[in-house]
Every structure is written in structure tokens, then in C-alpha cells.
Amino acid sequence: MQIPSRLIEAAVEEFAKLPGIGKKTALRLVLHLMESPEERSFNLSENLSKARRDIKHCQRCYTLSDEDLCTICENPLRDQNTICVVEGLRDVLAVENTLQYRGLYHVLGGVIAPIQRIGPEDLTIDALVRRIPAEQTKEVILALSPTMEGDTTAFYLTRKLKPFGIKITTIARGIPLGGELEYADELTLGRSIATRTIYDQQQ
Ligand SMILES: [Zn+2]
Q1: How far apart are CA 15 and CA 34, in angstroms?
Q2: Are 82 and 95 spatial neighbours (Cβ–Cβ below 8 Å)?
Q3: How far, in Å, is the centroid of ligand 1 from the Cα of 122?
Q4: What is the pLDDT of residues 59-71, one digit of tens each?
Q5: How many other C-beta atoms lie within 10 A of the C-beta of residue 160?
Q6: Order of strands across the sheet that contains 139-142
Q7: For the chain, which has fewer Cβ within 10 Å, the N-terminal or C-terminal residue?
Q8: Cα(106) to centroid of ligand 1, in Å?
Q9: How far apart are CA 135 and CA 78, in angstroms?
Q10: If you measure from the C-alpha of residue 156 to the centroid of ligand 1, how many angstroms do you get, rounded to a whole number?
């Protein structure tokens, strides 16, 4: 693709570095901005720079936040005795979108992955362990990816949290709603059989 402007080409290259954006889409976005009022481009870059500069991690749950404490941690209506442990902010958003959870979170910042040299000390596990007695946590829900790394992390966390005598649960993993059994891969199906629940509880 030959672009007759180095300025546009440079902008397209930046957009194309974003996940899910190919060069064609990047060009479409840049051309749209070039044809829009100048302030739109200005606002876009200004807001992004400001967010990138000022964003921090919540001091309690480590999700991204504008303030020292995020809006979830600050909300007194949330169940203060339950912590849902997730890998990253995307998972917080995914669980929030279900509207099924009213407790707090703890963002690990990844999972234990020996091959990538990510050990427990690279994650916020110590901070999580400190929260349990400090916040009188009653239940920790492990909502980690059903991967080998996710399972390793869940196993490690369970060992660390067991001495506190709290309830440790993990999200049920299984067949997607509306999914047909025959199309589920055997790993998913096998796991959903292994983690089956009493039928009455699903009603
Ligand atoms: Zn928080």
C-alpha cells in the first residue's frame, strides 16, 4: 500500500500496532481523523496521553485506577468479605459485565509461567495474602484462565491461602451457554463433568 504522505503513513503505522487493527483499518481511521475537525485528533491524543500518564494501580486490588483506591474498592455497597482473584483488568471488566458479582477483586498482574520466567514474586500474590486477615476475607474466588499456567497459579494460591481457613472456590468451567455439547472440545467437556454441580443448584 503506497501512501503519498509520510505524515499519514506514520500515523497509520501507530494505529496498526494496536491489537486487532490491520493496516487497512488503520488507514481508514487515520483518514477519518484527517477529514474530521482538528480538535478530534487533538482530543484523542490528549486524552490518551493523560490517561497513560496519570493512570495507577489501585493500592488495594491492583486494578487500573485514577485514584489511590479504585471505584470498586471505594464502594461501601460491595461485599467486603469476598475477593475474586483475576489475571488482569480485562477479567475484572468481564466479571463486572455479568452483573452477577458484588464482591471485591484482586488483580494478580499475570499468572505463574515458568517458561516466560514469571514466578509468584512477579505477581501481587503477597499483597493478596496480606489482605486476607486485614480485611477479614471469608471467601476467595479463583477466576483464572483454564490453562496450564492458570491451573498452576490456582494450585499455588490455594496452598498459600489454606492456612487462613477461608472458603476457596473456583469459577465453574464448562460448556458455553447456547453451545452444543458435541462441539465442545474434550478438555472443556471433561472438566465440566469433573466439576459438575447438583442439578438443583443450577435452577
Ligand atoms: Zn481497587
Answers
A1: 14
A2: no
A3: 19
A4: 999 999 999 999 9
A5: 15
A6: 103-107, 79-86, 139-142, 167-170
A7: C
A8: 8
A9: 13
A10: 23
Which three three-digit cell numbers place residue 5? 504522505
The Å distance, Cα 107 to ligand 1 centre, comes to 9
- CA–centroid distance, 132 to ligand 1, in Å, is 15
Alpha-carbon distance 14 to 31, whole Å?
A: 13
CB 89 within 8 A of CB 124: no
**pLDDT at residue 183 above 80?**
no
Q: What is the pTM of this model?
A: 0.79
**Residue 131 and residue 71: Cα distance in Å, rounded?**
18
pLDDT digits (tens, 9 = 90+) for 105-125: 999 999 999 999 999 999 999
- 8 A C-beta contact, residue 92 and residue 63: yes
Mean pLDDT of 31-43: 97
Q: What is the pLDDT of residues 126-143, one digit of tens each?
A: 999 999 999 999 999 999
CA of 136 to the centre of ligand 1 (A): 16
- Grid cell, residue 1, equals 500500500
